[in-house]
Amino acid sequence: MASKTLTFSVRPRGKPLNKLPEELSLSATSTSSDLYSQLASSSKTSIHRLRITKGSDGSLIPNTASLPVSDTGLRDGSSIYVKDLGPQISWRLVFILEYLGPLLIHPLLYFFLPSNEPSTLQAISCALITLHFLKRELETLFLHRFSTATMPRFNLFKNSAHYWLLAGLNIGFWTYRDSAPAAGESNMWITSMSVILYAIGELGNLYTHLVLRSLRSSGGSERGIPHGLGFGVVTCPNYMFETLAWLGICGVTWSLASIVFAVVAVGQMGVWAQKREARYRREFGAKYQRKRFVMLPGLW
Hints:
Layout: E1 5-13, E2 23-27, H1 32-43, E3 50-54, E4 79-84, E5 88-90, H2 91-112, H3 120-142, E6 150-152, H4 155-176, H5 188-214, H6 237-253, H7 256-284
Parallel strand pairs: 1-4
Antiparallel strand pairs: 1-2, 3-4, 5-6
Helix pairs in contact: 2-3, 2-4, 3-5, 4-7, 5-6, 6-7
């Protein structure tokens, strides 16, 4: 018996795409990814530029191979809206480019900014920050699995400014110049404790990333409930450990610029962690153990 055919009314949201069809027909057994593929093919547009929402309530129709169209709430005769998100760039490439800034800037400033021999604290600062961003690059290349393939290309400049300017030039200038606090004598106890804190943060962050990777298949977008070190205490222990690493860096650089970057980064991670907690509660319901704190135990 032939499967039922569903016909949808297609309407543009914002600036219309060229060759966007006014109607689209799909088998009732088709998936939402088939919907995206057919609209991308008809309009001669990259599938990653499309955002499709339901005309009934404006909710997003995800691009998922495991979601039948019939389960999205669409019915024969339903209206769908298609928005062109504009030029896109892959999340992986964005991460690589934004982390590349401080990864290059710090060694360059360390070797060429001071006129005197760099101090022990300056050497340790350069090593810790360079290793931090090298770790991020390697995780981007070999570890992270992204739920979405692309982001708007314009965001590359905003994201890169955060890392190239705040984490790269700003921290580097105030850490490696001759009059920087890090150019003076180090306090062995404070320096040692800071390096230990940094190591705990980086290793803990790596562990949580491995846990999160295990929840998603290669090329997939599925989500699961993470378990393991830190996940029973806060929603996003990866951000908690990231915070510890930057506290360690601040303890070595003795730089206000490092503190400014850490405060900005923690604030942004806190917003992301709150959104993730809300998403876990929404998607997993009673299966998910709700967290009182999303990132920093007892604080946030």
